[in-house]
């Protein structure tokens, strides 16, 4: 009965998946009780993209699921071409569902003659015809202000906190920021887990030759630790944090992040680090060769499914941000 009501409430949604993360798109569709719409995305030998929409979208509310992840520029252009195709097909509204927003770290001018690429990406998305953006854990919340259209900024922290609670990892635990920039995020998770926080303090922005010499601000000796960040890219920062915590006397050490970028030698860094478990979400597809024994992937599909359903039915999304544990 519940599934039937779910399907009836979402019956008019048109959900499309591009090539960046088809597995997540299938999970979202299953959560919503709908099928992904029929479209083909082809790449010519010279790299040009061809998209064919094989069913009518005239007057419909359309949601496109596409992470701007590796290959970043290719996936971004797929999104642009798809939105143009939908606009030219008279779609009622075009909603870009972006689980991972690439270029998000380029959100300000840190030096002379530097672009603000995150703003440029926002301009392109609007120019291509998006009416709304649905994103998850933007690197900086201020990126919402780069858009002149509605942005629903979802959070993975509720899913992550629930995982640690369900597995009793919230007992006698300290939430650790891998650097000073991550203190706010660490504090948010610590609030849900009713835990103290600590900070890994290193003065050199580059990799430390001896990570164990980094200063840990806070009491971690004899405690479990969760190193919490929004993304894991090369893995260096996470690896340094783990070594510093181990040297400071921490017991079981966990890594937790929303976006598993895993570029360069990230997998080797994480496998060689003293992490008991590396917990990420499925915002980015992790190739089989980048998966390892202590990697745990949480699905964020229920969060996106509920958000899309609420947006489609013109209901408040407040319930996605109000939760007690």
TrEMBL record:
<keyword id="KW-0808">Transferase</keyword>
<dbReference type="GO" id="GO:0002189">
    <property type="term" value="C:ribose phosphate diphosphokinase complex"/>
</dbReference>
<keyword id="KW-0963">Cytoplasm</keyword>
<dbReference type="GO" id="GO:0005524">
    <property type="term" value="F:ATP binding"/>
</dbReference>
<feature type="binding site">
    <location>
        <begin position="46"/>
        <end position="48"/>
    </location>
    <ligand>
        <name>ATP</name>
    </ligand>
</feature>
<comment type="subunit">
    <text>Homohexamer.</text>
</comment>
<dbReference type="GO" id="GO:0005737">
    <property type="term" value="C:cytoplasm"/>
</dbReference>
<dbReference type="GO" id="GO:0004749">
    <property type="term" value="F:ribose phosphate diphosphokinase activity"/>
</dbReference>
<feature type="active site">
    <location>
        <position position="202"/>
    </location>
</feature>
<dbReference type="GO" id="GO:0006164">
    <property type="term" value="P:purine nucleotide biosynthetic process"/>
</dbReference>
<keyword id="KW-0479">Metal-binding</keyword>
<comment type="similarity">
    <text>Belongs to the ribose-phosphate pyrophosphokinase family. Class I subfamily.</text>
</comment>
<dbReference type="Pfam" id="PF13793">
    <property type="entry name" value="Pribosyltran_N"/>
</dbReference>
<feature type="binding site">
    <location>
        <position position="139"/>
    </location>
    <ligand>
        <name>Mg(2+)</name>
    </ligand>
</feature>
<protein>
    <recommendedName>
        <fullName>Ribose-phosphate pyrophosphokinase</fullName>
        <ecNumber>2.7.6.1</ecNumber>
    </recommendedName>
</protein>
<dbReference type="InterPro" id="IPR005946">
    <property type="entry name" value="Rib-P_diPkinase"/>
</dbReference>
<comment type="function">
    <text>Involved in the biosynthesis of the central metabolite phospho-alpha-D-ribosyl-1-pyrophosphate (PRPP) via the transfer of pyrophosphoryl group from ATP to 1-hydroxyl of ribose-5-phosphate (Rib-5-P).</text>
</comment>
<dbReference type="GO" id="GO:0006015">
    <property type="term" value="P:5-phosphoribose 1-diphosphate biosynthetic process"/>
</dbReference>
<comment type="pathway">
    <text>Metabolic intermediate biosynthesis; 5-phospho-alpha-D-ribose 1-diphosphate biosynthesis; 5-phospho-alpha-D-ribose 1-diphosphate from D-ribose 5-phosphate (route I): step 1/1.</text>
</comment>
<dbReference type="GO" id="GO:0000287">
    <property type="term" value="F:magnesium ion binding"/>
</dbReference>
<keyword id="KW-0067">ATP-binding</keyword>
<dbReference type="InterPro" id="IPR000836">
    <property type="entry name" value="PRTase_dom"/>
</dbReference>
<dbReference type="InterPro" id="IPR037515">
    <property type="entry name" value="Rib-P_diPkinase_bac"/>
</dbReference>
<dbReference type="Pfam" id="PF14572">
    <property type="entry name" value="Pribosyl_synth"/>
</dbReference>
<keyword id="KW-0547">Nucleotide-binding</keyword>
<dbReference type="InterPro" id="IPR029057">
    <property type="entry name" value="PRTase-like"/>
</dbReference>
<feature type="domain" description="Ribose-phosphate pyrophosphokinase N-terminal">
    <location>
        <begin position="13"/>
        <end position="129"/>
    </location>
</feature>
<feature type="binding site">
    <location>
        <position position="179"/>
    </location>
    <ligand>
        <name>Mg(2+)</name>
    </ligand>
</feature>
<keyword id="KW-0460">Magnesium</keyword>
<dbReference type="GO" id="GO:0016301">
    <property type="term" value="F:kinase activity"/>
</dbReference>
<feature type="binding site">
    <location>
        <position position="229"/>
    </location>
    <ligand>
        <name>D-ribose 5-phosphate</name>
    </ligand>
</feature>
<keyword id="KW-0418">Kinase</keyword>
<keyword id="KW-0545">Nucleotide biosynthesis</keyword>
<dbReference type="InterPro" id="IPR029099">
    <property type="entry name" value="Pribosyltran_N"/>
</dbReference>
